Fold:
Amino acid sequence: MSITVKSVTKRFGDFTALNDVSLEVASGSLTALLGPSGSGKSTLLRVIAGLEKPDQGEVHISGSDATRTAPQERGVGFVFQHYAAFKHMTVWDNVAFGLTIRKRPKAEVRERVTELLQLVQLEGFADRYPSQLSGGQKQRMALARALAVQPRVLLLDEPFGALDARVREELRDWLRRLHDSVHVTTVLVTHDQEEAMEVAETVVLMDHGQIAQVGSPAQLYDHPASEFVMTFVGHVNRLGESYVRPHDVLLSRHPSPGAREGRISRLIHLGFEVRAELILTDATVLSAQLTRREADSLALESGQQVWVTLGETRAFDNIAVAEIEVMPAGSA
Amino acid sequence: MVTKLTLRFLVLGYLGLLILIPTTAIVWRSLNSGLGAAWASITTPDTLHAVWLTVIVVLIAVPLNAIFGVLCALLLVRHDFPGRAALSALIDLPLSVSPVVVGLALVLAYGQIGWFGSWLQGHGVQIIFALPGIVLATMFVSLPYVAREVVPVLEEIGTDQEQAAHTLGASSFQTFRRVTLPAIQSGLSYGIVLATARSLGEFGAVSVVSGRLVGQTETLTLVVQDRFQNFDLTGAYTAAVVLALMAVATLLAMNALTPKERT
Structure:
């Protein structure tokens, strides 16, 4: 079921959380809303869910205008950052909540809840209370609860934000596989670009209540539409008015035409990746990213003299974010 | 270790001097002239009527205040409106106003000489010197307790659970009954216990509005005072013990009804 957001503006007092935002989310896709805190990504998700009323604009879900529809009738599943588990109910009752509200027959509820607990791998936990679950288990329970009512759209607000790094990675992977098997249109809010890139087909990058760019993870990384996108997605070096990615900083132990002389101030080993902090003779500070093999073949060491050539560099005109043409959402 | 013992001694000593010794003394004195005398003084028609009246007043005032207290807390925590701070202060007013003043205020508003007095009398409704006045006075003084206990709990649980219930299709009422109410239960029952204790023990305001008609508008606290002034010490002490037992019974009942916390 597709989602269409048309020119939505939302203000909280003097603060404009969303400024004339339009967005298309394709049916069955997994889209990430990415951005720094205060960029409006959570507000946009809550507007889609009906938890916030937009001051202007419209929200359409699978073609019909849902702007004035209550959250109860939108057919959305919502997953909160802090789980929003019903603390006084067992895992079973939490997952069954939406079905018992709809007064579904007992047999159907039993079947559906059993199936969902299996899907989120919590079969043995039906009689536990949320306080007896780990963070990751609570969030899986919350997902099962949201999926129980067969929502047209699944909305996740920083779902892994409160979890530690390892669990987060596991759940990300698991969410991706879940989406491949359930195919419900999913929108995920995150401030973690790695999470967005890893999970989503389409990434919507937001900044100051507006959409900076929409595209696949590769499009955002390789063809950033603005300075903001370039600097937010991936690491960058700034050289005057232009930017260069650390993996486009090429190192050599020998001088060559056009190469600039410098010194390795620090060498950081990150497993497969090696990062070299450089100081050029004109005092420019740069960071280069190499594979382990490249670093080994150059026999790099801290304090060494190197010659630097730059691969692709980018410069941006200082145009306002609003004027950037927004690419259409992924065709998936 | 020494500080721990000192602290324990200090707290127990404080409670002993303030609460345990006087309470024990009352129970002791009420039984001083024998169980028979104590029983006889409880079972006089006037005392029995006072017990009944006190129970009726509590059964009307506390549930009404519990409902109003929860609604009020919801309004204060979940809604933003002009005059919110004023409402919050208004709820606390009964805590800061002397009960005697409350009684007088009720007489001025609803008594024969009061603003609505003649209109009410014209319609055959008597409030002052009758049950409605006693209930009103009791409600007035016990009003803040439920709201004050529920407000912090509501603030603590936040809106996530309620919003989750909404997205799962629950109406506002269903959300309240199945999500909010169980979540605030501990605060609510504590508020009810406090309101009940306050209602049972109210003296000043009830004393003014009831007219203290023996066997008609006399509640248990008024009986205690009445007996005491008439040098019927056994009667005063026994009535006091009954009052205390009713409070303890409320506490135990609420404890039994509230399920263990699962946080």
User: Anything to note?
Assistant: Chain A touches chain B at residues 49-51, 70-74, 76-78, 80, 82-89, 97-98, 101-102, 129, 131, 142, 145-146, 148-149 (CB under 8 Å).
